[in-house]
Design goal:
- The chain is mainly α.
- It contains 22 helices and no strands.
- Helix 7 runs antiparallel to helix 10 and helix 7 packs antiparallel against helix 12.
- It starts with 6 loop residues before the first helix and ends with a helix.
Length: 521
Amino acid sequence: MFDKNTFMAKLVRSWPALPYMSLGAMLAAMYIANSGTAWLSDNEMNGGNLSTLFIAASLASGCVMFLATFRVPKAKALLERPSVSLWAGVVSASGALLVIIIGPYYLYNYLPEQCTAVLFMVGSIVFEAGLGLIGLRNGHLYGALTPRYVIVYVGFSQLIVGATFFIVVGSPTWAPIVGGPSLAGIVVFVGMPLVAGVLAYLSRFGEQVSHSPNKATSRASLPKSFWKLLAVVLVFSCIVSSVHASTVATASIEETLNGSRLVMLLRMAFALGLIVVATGTESGGIRFGKIYSVVMVVSVGLVACLPLVSMLQTMLSQIVSFASVIFGLFLWCILAFIVRQRKVSAVIVFGFGYGAYLLGDGIGWLFGVKGLASLFDLMSDAFVYMIMALIVLACAFIIFSEREFDQLFAPVKEGNPTLDELFMKDLEGEGGRSLLGDDEPIKKGRFGFAIDSLAATHQLSPRETDVLRCLAMGYNSSTIAHKLSISWNTVRTHVRNVYGKLGVHSQQELISLVDEQVDKD
């Protein structure tokens, strides 16, 4: 246990979302590394070193997450120790520091070229391996959250990525050594993994964070649709990454950095829209199946059009990269929902799911740099891109289609709330508990018994009982009127009667009262 009166404990109690922002710091560290914004020197003429780091880093983090699935009990026990996040952050920061000091204005001139190449590779691998552990820890945390808060926190994490990127871009260019990376870039590149580790560590001070010891640790507990999604994730990230890599390999560093700025602006705008939608919708959830279909169709169209508009190829490639960002963002949300709904260990779900996404990125970038040019020599660019587009199309609508999303989120037991029901209840934070993620979802049966018990105790009429149930699920008066097919004024009358009989003065108090009754039952 920890002292509840320490500064850290008070900080987390006053800002419960803080530990979950570790995801934003982790993604910011990855993006800063992969975009080259913080560590590239002025003598970089092409994307060679950028590609090397991206490939090594993506494969390293993907392997860490994927390999954890073969030792689930040990990995789970390890990740439940918050201190692991701190050490992972230190390891990752040391890898980032090695990448900096091996640069052309530091040790590069004093060591053999082959030695510097090996050290650069080692630094890249260590940097991302540490972030892979932090990623699993974040998956462990997000898997305990209710759906609406997963989306909101993921949206805020994307804003952290954008803010970090533009801080680096807009900071003074003064460098410790003229021509090398700026001091601000070095601090952010080395510091963000530490920030990610510290934020994940703060979860130990969240009193209400709990993880069920009964989560399944067997791959067999996952539905077939999950493995189909996994195949789509791997293929999609591989193809999109290879398309982007082929452009970066031939573009100048300036073009690449300008493209990164464009992607980041789009990313931040999308994150803001996501937060607004997640907090503003009053019933049901975000239609992930529809978004999945739209992202896939847009990606297919862009990949197929790349060779037809050579003058805009760099820009279209960046938009394809942005589609991959959206895909990764929603993938994280989907994996968190699966952990909660299917009651499967986050090590398995995020290890396979996000591990496949990162491995696909690394393999795709390697193919884009090394293999795609060879294919262009054998056949026309248009034909190659068309084949790649058709592969994505086949994966998106044959292997795993939109209608299979429901199978991913189906409750383990009959009577447990569906994903849509959890979205609706989240509007008022489930009495404040879901904000920090009570891992055991309140069963529909217990919820119903609690409503019936309160109605009987306080002598509510049948219609008042219906209104009580809707209020406890987070509906506002307009939504209740629509669902019960009664007028808005009638709803307001019933609401006043319910509040008066239960002795509460707000919907939040009513939800808290229902939650207390659920715990009693």
